[in-house]
Input
Amino acid sequence: MRRREVILAGLSLPLLSLFDGGMKTFAATPKSATPFDDDTVAGLARSLAANPYRPPDETLPAELAKIGYDQYRDYRYRADRALWRGLGVPFQAQFFHRGFLHKERVDIYEVVDGKAAPVVYSPDMFTYGRSPAPKVSDLGFAGFRLHGPINRPDYFDEIAAFLGASYFRAVAKGQSYGLSARGLALKTGDPEPEEFPVFKAFWLQRPAKSADAVVVHALLDGPSAAAAFRFAIKPGVETVFDVDMRLYPRVELARAGIAPLTSMFDFDASDRVGVDDYRPAVHDSDGLALLNGRNEQVWRPLQNPKAVQMSAFQDVDPRGFGLMQRKRAFSDYLDLEAGYQKRPSLWVEPIGDWGEGAVILVEIPTADEYHDNIVAFWRPKQAFAAGREYRFGYRLHWCMDHAWQRELAVVASTRIGKAPKAGRLIVIELAGGRLDAMPAEAKLQVDALASKGELRNAVAYRNAETGHWRMSFELDPRGQSDIELRARLKDAKGPLSETWLYRWNP
Output
């Protein structure tokens, strides 16, 4: 899997320019408006799925068809033409130009008082750097981004962006962009080619002046399925998306991924064999977190494997999962440009019962930090039948961290190196929970297992430098590979830490 930057084609209609306080704002002409409610997009998706799939038209005018990265990055939306600017509402929207990797067209509509009207492209919405403005009209857009006063009350920061296939991403207060979410994952990690359905159109509901959230509707389409999404986006210290998804398969979907997350992991102290880099770690996320239906809290450090590996964490009615960035100090990365310590964690909280299935983790080899190589999603056990509706509700938390069971210590770091005699030494740093109050002389038990090979010298001890605790043990692989490791710290009252899982390979 790699990040794909594609959008599907659509339709647009004329636009009316309005003026408010000396700033130009945009809304559709009343005659072009049509009724809209929370079932409108679902009806469109249901109709699409009942008919054969029509591939998007990627045709662009000659002057846009061959532009490269440097030219495309000069195409910038004019902030003074932002949707809702000058209306006194707490959100604004800006749009992405078509071109370069973003060839397909997406339609964007504004919804006001139960009526939807299209927002229509005009060349004067953008600046083009050293390039001349294209002499085109009715071009549509490639996507959009939302702005709001998330860091300062007097400045509209970018808080979310929808661009490329069904990808979208967001930030919370004080963060910079990192991992992405997607609408739907199909055949991810499978031997056959992955399918990338796209958001075909968006409907942006004009927020009230007192609103703390903005609502976006999206229509998704692809060869195997169509879907309707409703996103209620509330930015803040934790930016939250309340998601309502209605899925309409064209064919039976046996390997669909719900609430997919996409990230990058290059290396860290647990996985840096052969790495020649001055930085101690490079990643947008460092672990998969799980809170399963049995109320067990799990941490699985991410890896950059030698070959594609897929892990399935079986569950019934999961309480949550996410790709998290736990290391938050500049010294963890020492990268002045990338600022990995400011990248979001993303936690998926299911709303309602999701039944039986598995959280799937796909890890793909990468030689650099510029390509996403990590995917996580929920895969239901039961296949989706063609011609039916399937509905999922969930909440996305874009955050620094997320609290689950506060009495448990969490894995702060995983370090793996050569053991003193033979095999590998694994050192796991634990922080928080009731473990922090344990005296150094406390007798604690390392509950550790290996599916193959042998574990030895399992010990737990306080780290006097940090006040945290460590558990460590040695793994003798005995020539084996694909060794599943499991460990947690306990006392007489029960678990003191979340469960640490790892797949070791030579």
Notes: Residues 291 and 297 are 5 Å apart (CA to CA).
